[in-house]
Design goal:
Helix content: 25-40%
Distance between the termini: 102 Å
Number of domains: 3
Strand content: 5-15%
CATH architecture of the largest domain: Orthogonal Bundle
Number of strands: 10
Order of helices and strands: HEEEHEEEHHEEEEHHHHHH
Shape: elongated
CATH class of the largest domain: Mainly Alpha
Strand order of the largest sheet: 1-2-3-5-4
Structural class: alpha+beta
CATH superfamily of the largest domain: Transferase(Phosphotransferase) domain 1
Length: about 325
């Protein structure tokens, strides 16, 4: 008896698990990824003649809470209309009760793979600035991602940067499921933000003490299970960890100070917002002083010389030329 290859077994598994969406609008193709809450499939939207990603709940016997989480995930996606966040197109329910939703099919690679071909530090930092812009937009809308890491950031073929996997996101001002309402100054709520794949090491529970996020990337207050204390500075920590990975182990001093401040253990020692972090990165790129680092006099002089190097060289060339002409004229 011949044994089936791993590829054949995977194909058979996809065929047997492929969901049957009601109606004939969507044609399901191959599976793109699987997470704790759902499986993502590539599909064709026949009405609009385009490929989309369809996320379907993994278990038919899902609880009302699990269905509610996926529904909130879709609602968060619909709420966050931004070029850096995957838009949602449709939502529905299978015959067995599982929820599904269709969204933009993201083409590209994860940030950690994308930067393998981007060796120049300024180019890497400009990608990071686009990431900060998207995270800040979500924060202004009252949504905290809580699972920022390179694997959850996609870079498209034209340099577009998308923040993925909002499955453990939190909506400020709303109590989390299973958790008493937080004080007005700290408000909290679990919501699920969408993505083309599920990510992270989050559990389905949102009760007090639950750890939501990915070890090594989440803020210390998340790792301690203090969900009601999490605010935008938790995402700043995640951004700091991503920045650390982008710049390597020996970045310039001013950039190292920015990284250290972003990923500080105590929330009060970090940047207050993603835009504040982005502003310091922008200052670093433009050669101006950054708020995270106090320069000495010699360092400041060196930075100014580096920033105005071309002008200084032109001035020196002019002085040398004038001196030579003066000396030549005296002969």
């Amino acid at each position: 008896m011949n044994r089936l290859s791993d590829e054949a077994l995977a194909h058979l598994r996809d065929v047997t698990e492929r969901p049957e969406l009601p109606g004939d609008r969507y044609e399901i193709h191959e599976r793109l990824g699987r997470g704790g809450m759902g499986t993502v499939w590539r599909a064709t939207d026949r009405e609009l003649a385009r490929d989309v990603a369809v996320k379907v709940m993994t278990l038919p016997a899902a609880s009302d809470r699990e269905r509610g989480r996926l529904q909130r995930e879709a609602h968060i996606l619909a709420r966050l209309e931004h070029p850096g966040i995957v838009p949602i197109h449709d939502i529905g329910q299978l015959a067995d009760g599982r929820l599904w939703y269709a969204m933009k099919l993201v083409r590209g690679v994860a940030l950690d793979r994308a930067v393998e071909s981007v060796s120049a530090l300024p180019a890497r930092l400009r990608l990071f600035l686009r990431l900060c812009e998207t995270v800040e937009f979500a924060h202004v809308q009252g949504v905290i991602h809580r699972d920022l890491k390179p694997a959850n950031v996609m870079v498209g073929p034209f340099g577009e940067v998308l923040v993925m996997d909002w499955g453990v996101a939190k909506v400020l001002g709303e109590p989390e499921e299973g958790e008493p309402a937080a004080p007005p100054s700290a408000g909290a709520a679990d919501a699920s933000g969408g993505a083309a794949t599920d990510g992270g090491a989050a559990t389905d529970s949102t009760s007090p003490g639950t750890v939501l996020g990915t070890p090594g990337w989440m803020a210390p207050e998340q790792a301690a299970g203090r969900a009601h204390t999490v605010d935008p500075r938790a995402d700043v920590f995640g951004l700091g960890r991503i920045l650390h990975a982008l710049v390597g182990s020996e970045p310039p001093r001013r950039l190292a100070a920015i990284v250290a401040r972003a990923e500080a253990s105590r929330p009060e020692d970090r940047y207050g917002t993603a835009s504040e972090l982005a502003a310091d990165i922008d200052r670093f790129l433009s050669g101006t002083a950054v708020s995270a680092y106090r320069e000495g006099a010699l360092e400041k002089l060196g930075r100014l010389v580096e920033r105005h190097r071309v002008a200084i060289l032109l001035l020196l060339a002019y002085v040398v030329m004038r001196s030579l002409l003066f000396l030549w004229g005296d002969r």
